[in-house]
Design a protein that fits this description.
202 residues; mainly alpha; 5 helices; transmembrane; L6_membrane
């Protein structure tokens, strides 16, 4: 059946997306490749929410491997239970997809908040603060204001790029998991119909 193949395709995609989320989140800890800002706690507070490592990363591996594990393309199910095996497998993938939706949703929300608030940086007065926190994200449209952050160098570009990547990756993960919810429900129903058809044909 095509439902299992679709689920496996989604699963493989989620694995790579999760890896990219983890990498993007880790890079946020090292502006310009330096470690001192993390040790001195001069990073955006939303970096410490681990949205890419946990939400869009590790948490996504569970649904991904569940989807990949749907290897049977017939209607005979698993464990010898012809009447419910395939349906249970597809419906269980729906539960896994809901976990994926929660994880990716968390990633998207935190990334959006990180973009809206902006990075913590050293301003022209020599103070570490959130220079763009009161701009309601308008600083994203006015790149001329980014120079207000003296240190770390290019931290605004660094944060905007990586949080945008997390936002995009989390959004794609969310959509894929939502597709699998529909696919899993349809696969469970149609798998049952297929089994009934097999019985009648016999």
């Amino acid at each position: 059946m095509c439902y299992g193949k679709c689920a496996r395709c989604i699963g493989h995609s989620l694995v790579w997306l999760a890896i990219l989320c983890i990498v993007a989140n880790i890079l946020l800890y090292f502006p310009n490749g330096e470690t001192k800002y993390a040790s001195e706690n001069h990073l955006s507070r939303f970096v410490w929410f681990f949205s890419g490592i946990v939400g869009g990363g590790l948490l996504m591996f569970l649904p991904a491997f569940v989807f990949i594990g749907l290897e049977e393309d017939d209607c005979c199910g698993c464990c010898g239970h012809e009447n419910c095996g395939k349906r249970c497998a597809m419906f269980s993938s729906v539960l896994a997809a809901l976990i994926g939706i929660a994880g990716s949703g968390y990633c998207v929300i935190v990334a959006a908040l990180g973009l809206a608030e902006g990075p913590q940086c050293l301003d022209s007065f020599g103070h570490w603060n959130y220079t763009f926190a009161n701009t309601d994200g308008q600083y994203l449209l006015d790149t001329s204001t980014w120079s207000q952050c003296a240190e770390p160098k290019h931290v605004v570009e660094w944060n905007v790029s990586l949080f945008s990547i997390l936002l995009a990756l989390g959004g794609i993960e969310f959509i894929l998991c939502l597709v699998q919810v529909i696919n899993g429900v349809m696969g469970g129903i149609c798998g049952y119909c297929c089994f009934r058809q097999q019985r009648y044909d016999c």
